[in-house]
Amino acid sequence: MSWEPKIVGFLCNWCSYRGADLAGTSRIHFAPNVKVIRVPCSTRVEPSFVIKAFQSGADGVLILGCHPGDCHYIEGNYKTMRRVPLLKKMLKQFGIEPERVRLDWVSASEGQKYATVVNEMTEKVRELGPFNANNGEGQHGKN
Amino acid sequence: MAKIKLALYWASSCGGCEIAQLQIGEKLLKLIEAADIVFWPVAIDVKYKDVEAMPEKSIDVCLFNGAIRTSEQEHMAKMLRDKSKTMIAYGACANYGGIPGLGNLYNREMIFDRAYFETQSTDNEKKVTPQTSIDVPEGKLSLPEFYDTVKSLPQTVDVDFIIPGCPPEEKTTWLALEALIQNKLPPKGSIISHNVKAVCDDCPRTKNEKKVKKFYRPFEIESDPEVCLLEQGILCAGVATAGGCGAPCPKANMPCTGCYGPVKGVTDQGVHFLGAVASIIDSTDPEEIAKIIDDIADPAGTFYRYSLPDSMLRRAKV
To answer: Which of B148, B298, B311 is the mutation pick for testing A, counting most A CBs within 10 A?
Structure first.
């Protein structure tokens, strides 16, 4: 079987998860590669969740939240907006392409945008190839 | 009562742990009253073969400091584990990989290239790098293998207790040694330290709301000695680091760098610290946020100063 990108999608309950719902009920076709995990707010996604996703076999991580200013919890998504770039900067030092993590804003009415983001992300990760977690093993085998 | 047989060993470390062990001062005499030191390369002349000749589990307690970087260190860790009833990881390198663990951002080849060819002070015309063995007229000479990846002691052998710190504070060392002398060691797996939630709980600085527009390295700013360093934009790891040390670094105007390991309930200290730091950035504009993040020159080295091998990622893909 040929390799297919596995992407973990953390979707905020109030906007993006409903946007994804709308994409489905609107019969929009989009890539089936994102495995959705519903979270109360995009800021619930601690940076460690992203690393855990990679460790568990994900090739990419998509974090979607309400548009800035629209957060159900007033300012949760602003925290996400600060964390993700710093995390990406650090992941780069670990040899992990920053493009494997994407943060975007999808509202409950943006079914089409959800589909577009998912398609773009899937293609990006397909370009980058499998993540190949090395689980602490160096290139000289177990040592 | 028979004297406790104590072994002390150093692996990939700087020697600071030995100094920390001696820092207990005259309490050392109390230790000597209760314990015989059977192996301590820094201070007494006992050879590896003497340790090899010791029966299994004949050493009561081994204090092991340093990370595992070479085959020799791995061999000694396994041998001392076999010979010791209780194995204690002493200091940040043994516990979490420590400073040598930052080598996990590179591999052996990159480290050798840097150390033996590239540094300005290197003069190595014949391009010699350490080999594991070489034939000379007198016979075969060998060196331990240098591994790609640094490991902590618990990643190498079964460890009974952890004494945190880089190096452990005198009071932490004595807490463990006193428990040892009185035969009152805590349950297996315990971290032996004064049980304080975070370094912030020990830190006397006043703490208010944290909102940061710019991050500074300690030399770039004259900090207010009364106010939380993180609030002033200095990357202080106190929020992500277990207390028990007494916060000597913030008290001396230097940020905590995280040597006592993660706060309770956290497995990955670095990424926890990263999340805390990012959250206090005072901006809602992506461009300004990017600019503020630019101030943090080396996130991996800052957040994982002592805990890279023990982190979820353990090493970089190179």
So the answer is: B148
Rounded CA-CA distance B13/B10 in Å is 7
Which domains are seen in chain B, by residue range?
Answer: 4-99+155-181 (3.40.50.700), 105-144 (no CATH), 199-303 (no CATH)
For residue range A30-89, list pLDDT tens digits in order: 999 999 999 999 999 999 999 999 999 999 999 999 999 999 999 999 999 999 999 999
Residue in the block written with tokens 């060819």: B117
CA distance B308 to chain A (A): 10
Structure tokens at A124: 């990006």
Over residues B133-184, the pLDDT tens digits come to 999 999 999 999 999 999 999 999 999 999 999 999 999 999 999 999 998 9
Look at A48 and B312 and tell me if their CB atoms are within 8 Å: yes
Domain boundaries, position A20 = 7-127
The angle subtended at Cα B207 by Cα B202 and Cα B208, nearest 5°, is 160
Q: How many domains does chain A have?
A: 1
- Tell which residue, B1, B4, B2, has the closest CA to residue B181: B4
C-beta separation of B255 from B249 below 8 A:
yes
Q: What is the pTM of this model?
A: 0.93
User: What span, in angstroms and rounded, lies between the C-alpha atoms of A131 and A57?
Assistant: 8
Q: Considering the domain boundaries, does residue A141 fall inside one?
A: no
